Amino acid sequence: MGTDLRSLRHEYADRGLAETDLADEPVTMFGRWFDDAVDAGIGEPNAMVVSTVSAAGLPSSRMVLLKGYDEEGFVFFTNYASHKAADLEANPACALLLPWHDLQRQVRVDGTARRVDRSVSEEYFATRPRESRLGAWASVAPVAQSGVVAGAEALQAAYDAAEQRFAGGDVPCPPTWGGYVVRPETVEFWQGRRGRMHDRLRYRRDGEGWVVERLAP
């Protein structure tokens, strides 16, 4: 039957998170915790789960990479013809989750997504490795990202075609590729505690400011 999942448990440290530990607003607080994750050597500390809901009300989650954050929100990039993009265009409400298990921490964000300016997408795209830029074009045609393909050979053929198309030249940002910024309505900072008495402190948008609330574990 394999591993007994009921026996898998880990006791969290008793480091705690108090209201007095928080910054005045969530972006600064997020920056502190993100720096902690980087300093701790966590693999891909900017990996996060993006959860969306389709027009038909069906939820979906996947991992992406956080590529920026500021007072406007949290930024990631994708193919605008992808499953996640189709969901966001129909229903911009979404949720983000950054799990930092080694620190016994997680950050949850609930908000709404909008496309970033085209110039922002092009600027970021230019910083990507050439292979990644070619891969983006391979997901443009003949089948877009998340679409069904005939097999691995078809994907390689699409990549090879992109490589040939841009041989010796720059690889521009595809017209169907770009970023989203998620404007947070709530940002929750979760710190594991002993006995499952976890600390959960949530910033909730209130007009032009934020209210801090403690949530039951």
Low-confidence stretches: none
Question: What is the string of SSEs from the N terminus onward?
Answer: HEEEEHEEHHHEEE
CATH topology of the largest domain: the name is Pnp Oxidase, Chain A
CATH superfamily of the largest domain: Electron Transport, Fmn-binding Protein, Chain A
Separation of the first and last Cα atoms:
31 Å
In words, what does this structure look like?
The chain has 217 residues and is an alpha+beta fold. It has helices spanning 26-39, 83-90, 118-125, 130-138, 152-165; strands at 47-53, 59-65, 68-70, 73-79, 93-100, 105-115, 177-191, 199-206, 209-214. The longest helix is centred in the N-terminal third of the chain and has 14 residues, at 26-39.
Element layout with pairings:
Elements: H1 26-39, E1 47-53, E2 59-65, E3 68-70, E4 73-79, H2 83-90, E5 93-100, E6 105-115, H3 118-125, H4 130-138, H5 152-165, E7 177-191, E8 199-206, E9 209-214
Antiparallel strand pairs: 1-2, 1-5, 3-4, 4-7, 5-6, 6-7, 7-8, 8-9
Search tags:
33% strand; Pnp Oxidase, Chain A; 217 residues; 9-stranded antiparallel beta sheet; alpha+beta; 24% helix; 5 helices; 2 domains
Summarize the structure.
The chain has 217 residues and is of the alpha+beta class. The chain is built from five helices and nine strands; from the N terminus they run H-E-E-E-E-H-E-E-H-H-H-E-E-E. Strands 1, 2, 3, 4, 5, 6, 7, 8 and 9 form a nine-stranded antiparallel sheet that branches.
